[in-house]
Amino acid sequence: MNKIVILGAGYGGITAALRLARLLKKKKDYEIHLIDKNPFHTFKTQLHEAAVRNVEVSVPINQIIRKTSIIFHQQEIKQILTKEHIVKLQDFDITYNYLVLALGSITNFYGIPGLQAHSLTLQSLDDAKIIYENISGLIDEAMTSINENNKKDLLRFVIGGGGLTGVEFAGELVDYLSRDNRLVQGLKEVIVIEAGNRLLPNLDEKMSEEATKRLINKGIKIITNTKITNRTADTITLSNGEIIKSYCLVWTGGIKISELIGASDLKIGQLGRVLVNEYLQALDHPEIFALGDNALAINPTTGKPVPAAAQFALQQGRLVGENIFAEIKGKEKKTYKPKVFGEIISLGRHLAVGWFAVPFIKKLKFIGFIGSLFKSAVEDKHILLLRKESRNWTSWKG
């Protein structure tokens, strides 16, 4: 039996699996194997909500693939042997004819002393739960403390990194703290520390400035052009020499690719991403496809790497599914041409900034409550697309 093995059930991996299941429905000589260490698919663009409000942002994989031929294995991936066409898993080995790398990314701590040991990250559902419990515990501890300075230290929350994840988490957190009647204004503090000269560097400068202004108006302290150089259990040292007392540092300052990929003989580029051709095939390994964070895909229009973002992972997942099917059928593959639909960044529960690509108008920009409605619509669209690919229109329960 021929096997297509997909590593990772994130945005790109689950989409590739579902698209292949549809295309190969009548070809019984191919099996589709989806492998992930978790039994659920996580809506990563909503993790900041789970970290602050403990809302459900995942759906069981078995519910998504229920009406398909996809075989799911909840397994830890141990090694990728490209020469032998074998993936070594926690409990068994699996061979493949085609392999899809959709493992996502892990946090990059850049070797900063104490950072990995004494900070929280926001890459997974488990991370979100740990942050939620940490915040709740610090608030409870602060409420029982009789020392005002100690209360302030307990309620000083620091976010390292002013990109998309850091900004969305900060906006969500400050709204949550503001709604807690036990916390008076002078006690709580949310600080965002960014090494660059502005927040949200992927947005144009005016929109970045507007977003920063809105966050400051919410009471968030913004520190730019400053790096974190050291972290202990209760202090954060900055590159300007300042020391901040805090028991909660959420690090969102960078990502890198799984060491599994680096340990294989695949050609890799910046951040350990796999070098791919115009069909998203790994160089020198046409039987291996990479997508999402794992692929160093080049935008043919700009000549620049495609950013690691959900909208591109979804597009790449569909294309990889179609290109593997084309290979099997001996037909022409499609080249990858990313479509940029826009970007929306949440600044809290009822506030967002962003833009959409609109015909005859290069960018339709927006900020405010209307932006939060657009954000919700985009999140709902992802769920709708998963239902469409799986042909599963019944209710999903987390």
Distance between the termini: 34 Å
Total of domains: 2
Low-confidence stretches: none
Task: Characterize the overall form.
Answer: globular
For the largest sheet, list the strands in their spatial order: 5-2-1-9-22-21
- The portion of residues forming beta strands comes to 25-35%
Explain what you see.
The protein is α/β, with parallel strands linked by helices and 398 residues long. It folds into two domains: 2-107 and 255-341 and 376-390, FAD/NAD(P)-binding domain (3-Layer(bba) Sandwich); 120-251, FAD/NAD(P)-binding domain, CATH 3.50.50. Helices cover 32% and strands 27% of the residues. It has helices at residues 11-23, 47-53, 61-64, 125-144, 148-154, 164-179, 205-217, 259-262, 310-329, 369-390; strands at residues 2-7, 30-36, 40-42, 58-60, 71-74, 77-81, 86-89, 93-95, 98-101, 105-107, 120-121, 156-160, 189-193, 220-223, 228-231, 235-238, 243-245, 248-251, 255-257, 274-275, 281-282, 285-290, 295-296, 342-346, 352-358, 361-368. The strands form eight sheets. Strands 5-2-1-9-22-21 form a six-stranded mixed beta sheet, with helices on one face. Strands 11-18-12-13-14 form a five-stranded parallel beta sheet. A three-stranded antiparallel beta sheet has the order 6-7-8, with no helix packed on it. Helix 2 (47-53) runs parallel beside helix 4 (125-144), helix 2 (47-53) runs parallel beside helix 6 (164-179) and helix 4 packs antiparallel against helix 5.
